[in-house]
Amino acid sequence: EDECPSHPRSMVVVDDVFCIFVGTLENTCDLRHHYGLSRQATEAMVVVEAYKVLRDRAPYPPDQVIKDLEGKFAFILFDARAGNLFLARDRDGCVQLQWGIAGDGSLVCSDDPKIITEACGKCYTPFPPGCIFMNGTGLISFDHPLHKVRAIAREDDNGNISAVIFQVDLYTKLHSIPRTGSAANWAGSTVVEGE
């Protein structure tokens, strides 16, 4: 009803994967070709297919999937079979996407400010641009996937939290795969057995 003409909204359900996509992709033709989709495939269908590649070909990093999307977009994807929630917003934050906590403790996500205000009251904030959220891994910057994304609370004069912003902490790296192999073992002493 309140859809913005410059950021159209589309919804698709494929194999129990629900996707609401807002905005446009500039490289839809390339992505259709990459994922083997027909010319009629919408941007939401492309996102569902990208998610399926991520889900089915693990450990494919989610930031690599999203980096391929060029344009002004935000999406909410839910995989009913796996119970996975996947959200993303473009680097520039051109498309609105809010998220917050409802009174019953559930997560609410929407591009409509009225919906988010009614559901969450004041307990919401803009979803950070250039980030993805998956319920298994948390919030990640797709430009800096090895660095932690921190929530920073803003307080009013009375000490009440008035807003939360998210920022990539370029000084704190996330844990990655430990190194193994010959370079990791050279520092150890050599023990010769048998004599």
Automatic annotation (TrEMBL):
Q: Which EC number(s) are documented for this chain? A: 6.3.5.4
Q: What class of enzyme is it?
A: ligase
Question: Gene3D superfamilies given for it?
Answer: Glutamine Phosphoribosylpyrophosphate, subunit 1, domain 1
Q: Could you tell me the keywords of this UniProt record?
A: Ligase
A single GO molecular function term of this UniProt record = asparagine synthase (glutamine-hydrolyzing) activity
Domain DUF3700 residues, every copy: 1-168
Q: Which InterPro entries match?
A: DUF3700, Ntn_hydrolases_N, TSJT1-like
Report the PANTHER family cross-referenced here.
ALUMINUM INDUCED PROTEIN WITH YGL AND LRDR MOTIFS (PTHR45952), STEM-SPECIFIC PROTEIN TSJT1 (PTHR45952:SF8)
State the protein's name.
Putative stem-specific protein TSJT1-like
